[in-house]
Design brief:
Bound molecules: erythose-4-phosphate, phosphoenolpyruvate
Number of strands: 14
GO molecular function: 3-deoxy-7-phosphoheptulonate synthase activity
Oligomer: single chain
Keywords: Amino-acid biosynthesis, Aromatic amino acid biosynthesis, Transferase
Function: Stereospecific condensation of phosphoenolpyruvate (PEP) and D-erythrose-4-phosphate (E4P) giving rise to 3-deoxy-D-arabino-heptulosonate-7-phosphate (DAHP).
Organism: Syntrophobotulus glycolicus (strain DSM 8271 / FlGlyR)
Number of helices: 11
Order of helices and strands: HHEHEHEEHEHEEEEEHEHHHEEEH
Shape: globular
CATH architecture: Alpha-Beta Barrel
Pathway: Metabolic intermediate biosynthesis; chorismate biosynthesis; chorismate from D-erythrose 4-phosphate and phosphoenolpyruvate: step 1/7
Radius of gyration: 19 Å
CATH superfamily: Aldolase class I
Length: 342
């Protein structure tokens, strides 16, 4: 075997015992989970914003960003529900590059998965304890879900993972809303099939156990645009795309049909500064069509303290080291615009 076993990583029970979620925060988390669930069940018509850096690379800058979100959340709470993006696992197109805090708690140092798992759990708990905001993360490694299952508020399965059986089956045993992204090639059937699989019950092998799941009726769609076989970006947030997705969704007869639109990635053609324009267009489409208004539950936006991106080592506090993000001033303006126009 050409694999060197470096360090045994403690199991979830051990890590949770070392870094527990405080009792009084568990109650707050339960109430927030209930509110998020109601949005997907059409029992609360607030608009969701899943918003934050492309990758959560530094606990202090991420928490400073969330503290700013928390202040705005108070102002817009009757119209918008904000879920911070704390993305600690990064899928990479070629396997090269920063793979997230779970691999490297300090991006300038060598990988340390054991410290990484502790660091991401601490950061998620800080978002809950200091700001009462359960955050979103990507399920990149389904087996790692058990380290964060009690602290997350929302999960996305990424464009590169959505056709994978272990992801789909694991989501079927998750008790919170999980967004299944369209794959990088854009095939909506793959996304809708993944929702079907996640909404059904399954028996399978998970972390050394035979497990049985109930199915997750809150699994739903995330549209992130696509890249065609010539490498061209094909957005899927325009009115006609949304109408088509909604009608395909209806045909599949899935529970709680819901769409989140990702305003970055192939939708913005990785031009982060286009996100406010894209958000405005989606709000207009929602206003124009009542079925879309019901189905489009929110947006996923990439934003951080400082706009753009940097290379690791430039050390600009609060600037993305993966995909470029909106900066704070534009983010604040955008959230206010959404609150007034949703
Ligand atoms: O969201 C971030 C990136 O788009 C994703 O992780 C892929 O990144 P890469 O194509 O730069 O590897
Ligand atoms: C990696 C991400 O997205 P996608 O899977 O759509 O590329 C992300 O949202 O950070």
């Amino acid at each position: 075997m050409s694999m060197r076993f470096i360090k045994r990583i403690p199991g979830a029970a051990e890590i949770i015992k070392q870094i527990p979620l405080p009792g009084h925060i568990k109650e707050i988390k339960k109430e927030k989970d209930h509110q998020i669930k109601k949005i997907f069940e059409n029992k609360d018509d607030r608009f969701l914003l899943i918003i934050g850096p492309c990758s959560a690379d530094n606990e202090d800058s991420v928490c400073e960003y969330i503290s700013r979100l928390a202040k705005i959340q108070e102002k817009v709470q009757d119209r918008i529900f904000i879920i911070p993006r704390i993305y600690t696992n990064k899928p990479r197109t070629t396997g090269e590059g920063y793979k997230g805090m779970v691999h490297q708690p300090d991006p300038s140092k060598e990988p340390d998965l054991c410290e990484g798992i502790k660091a991401i759990r601490r950061m998620h708990i800080r978002s809950l304890s200091e700001f009462h905001m359960p955050a979103a993360d990507e399920m990149l490694y389904p087996e790692n879900y058990s380290y964060l299952s009690d602290v997350l508020g929302y999960i996305a399965v990424g464009a590169r993972s959505v056709e994978n059986q272990q992801h789909r089956l694991t989501v079927s045993g998750v008790e919170m809303p999980v967004g299944m992204k369209n794959p990088t090639g854009g095939d909506l059937t793959v996304m809708l099939n993944s929702i079907k699989a996640a909404q059904s019950s399954h028996a399978f092998l998970y972390n050394g156990w035979q497990v049985e799941t109930t199915g997750n009726t809150l699994a739903h769609a995330i549209l992130r645009g696509a890249v065609d076989s010539y490498g061209r970006n094909i957005p899927n947030y325009h009115y006609e795309d949304l109408i088509f997705t909604a009608s395909e969704y209806e045909k599949h007869q899935l529970a709680h049909p819901s769409i989140i639109v990702d305003t970055n990635h192939a939708n913005s053609m990785k031009c982060y500064y286009e996100q406010p324009r894209i958000a405005r267009e989606i709000l207009m489409s929602r206003k124009y069509d009542t079925a879309l208004k019901k189905m489009i539950k929110g947006l996923m936006i990439e934003s951080y303290l400082v706009e753009g991106r940097q290379e690791i080592g430039e050390n600009i506090y609060g600037k993305s080291i993966t995909d470029a993000c909106l900066g704070w001033e534009s983010t604040e303006r955008l959230i206010c615009y959404i609150a007034e126009n949703v």
